[in-house]
Amino acid sequence: MIVALAIGLALLIQAFVVKPYQIPSGSMEPTLDIWQRVLVNRVVYHLHDPHIGNILVFHPPTGAVDGGRECGVRPPARAACPQPGPDESDTNFIKRIVAGPGDHLRIVRGVPIVNGVKAKEDFTNPCGAGGDCNFPKQITIPDGMYFMMGDNRGRSDDSRFWGPVPKSWIIGEAFLTYWPPDRIGFL
Fold first, then answer.
1. Which of 34, 64, 86, 99 has its CA 20 to 30 A from that of 170?
2. In CATH, what is the architecture of 2-103+141-186?
3. 17, 44 in Cβ contact below 8 A?
């Protein structure tokens, strides 16, 4: 009886409160390495909205899965994708919020410029000068959506290509890394 209760409680906590995830790619390096494991708070965004800088696990649009770069609309020349496709995938991605609802965004050499202010991001791997790094034409993030980018800017397929993510597609905020032991700590 006690074992069944413990298993049931653990499953409930994982389903509704905190869930472990494994990092599947190098898109968040150097912050998170491939195969590193994190805990994700699934409750926090029921209490308040996400903020720029938060690292989130979410479902991207279906056009983002398997290296896809399908924007929901045809983006203006030299602009990031301003609108995702209509369908949510069942795949989990992990990225960092760089802009939120109503923000004006452009990207130069992989660095977001939000509402005219260049982000200070000493935690990223730099991007180059190529087309995947430069989207100098400004877009506006739609209401209820968040623009996500990997910290490994030159090697991340993210909102630049498939658009912002609706809040309803967010699973939760990564707050702690627990494996490997030498990388244990809060994010």
1. 34
2. Ribbon (2.10)
3. no
Q: What is the mean pLDDT of the chain?
A: 92
- pLDDT score recorded for residue 131: 77
**What is the reported pLDDT for 10?**
59
- Provide the residue ranges of all domains of the chain, joining segments of one domain with +: 2-103+141-186
User: For residue 103, what are the contacts with CB-CB under 8 A and spacing of at least 6?
Assistant: 114, 115, 140, 141, 147
- Is 95 marked active-site? yes
Catalytic residue among 27, 89, 156, 159: 27
The dihedrals phi and psi of 92, each to the nearest 5 degrees, come to -100, 130
- CB neighbours (10 Å) of residue 93? 25
Residue of 89, 95, 156, 159 with catalytic role: 95
pLDDT score of 129: 72
Whether 118 sits among the annotated catalytic residues: the reply is no
